[in-house]
Amino acid sequence: MDFKEGQYKVRDLALADEGRRLIDWAESRMPVMMALRAKYRETQPLKGYRIAGCLHVTKETAVLVRALRDAGAEVAWSGCNPLSTHDAVAAALADEGIKMYAWHGLNTEEFYWCIEQTLGINPNLTLDDGADLIFTVHNKFPDLVPGVIGGTEETTTGVHRLRAMAADGALRYPVIAVNDAETKWDFDNVYGTGQSTLDGIIRATSVMLAGKNFVVAGFGHCGKGVALRAKGMGANVIVTEVKPTAALKATLEGMRVMEMDEAAAQGDIFVTATGIKDVIVKRHFESMKDGAIVCNTGHYDCEINLGDLESLGGTKRTIRDNNEEYTMPDGRRLYVLAQGRLVNLAAAEGHPSEVMDMSFANQYMSQLRLAEMHKSGTPWENKVYDIPAEQDQEIAMVKLRTMGIGLDVLTPEQIEYMDDYSAGT
Ligand code: 9W1
Question: How far is CA 1 from CA 6, 81, 103, 140, 234, in A?
């Protein structure tokens, strides 16, 4: 471990060069962040601001960190998940002077120790993925609250909890809900999860998707992303659902919709993406075909009931990383990927950089908004704020421009026509 008091604690600083190459690669895929970084390097809107961040230490996050620093901020960072920290990335950022406290596989005590170290900069802005930093400031370091202008939160769960906190009058500084931006949740869930889930399945199995019966449980945003990508790879997609409108959408997308009890016997590959537990249980394992592959990209590891699978009394062996074979007493072999945990994170690398580009542009612009609010001298209320709708359009427009895609513009006559209510339709 490399530790310098008040500066960093990372696995191994010697990994910095490897980390820099990965971050440079991510930069080449994140044009919106790079445009924002170049723009605000000039005007330094974050000069004098101290940001404590708690978010997965990945090559994409490093691009966000560099952009915050280049806008003038002093930045201290910890990871928000014990397993998502990329040690080479952490080393590179520490080497660049970011106060970095993160390493892969730290325990719970170390996790909170890292968060507390970042609070040592006496932050006036917080940046969260899961709200651990906001909670730590509120519960353990209330003396810091008066100095904090506001915070930003990345996730659905975090935003939900912060809204509950605000409703109880317990939230003590304003927070912007980054998650609720359309350019965040819609693209993360559909295109991020869609690609990374297939990526994880392929890395763990090298299986061919074309011609397979590919069962997707749940046709929410994540399920839809997975189903569309699988279809594009030539699979026969079967969707299972509990919600009538979702089932109807899947049907009209050309997918077969049926009960899991029926799909279980037909599927070659199963992906759960429902957010609820016990989607695949004992009776499903009992009717699956020899060779069936089962994995989850939904809510943690409870969607596939592995206890049920173990209870069928077969034998188990590891085929390769993230791929375990269960041989049933009747000789059928079933394959479980990543032990039923999120296959897109465990067996692949999370969302592609191109998707994180937009999520992090929302984080970045929200931090700027908090600093602007502070400079204008009109403080906000202690509640959860939404991203302005114009910010979504702005981010999407920059993304399109960097992709070389042009848009038509409404003429004044067209706008007048749209708004006209004098002559009927
Ligand atoms: N976030 N940069 C694992 C990611 C764990 C993870 C998690 C992402 C990114 C969903 C954020 C093994 C990156 C992250 C790589 C990796 C997430 C949990 C990103 C996808 C969300 C619980 N949640 N995310 N890249 N681990 O992709 O910051 O590889």
Answer: 15, 18, 9, 27, 47
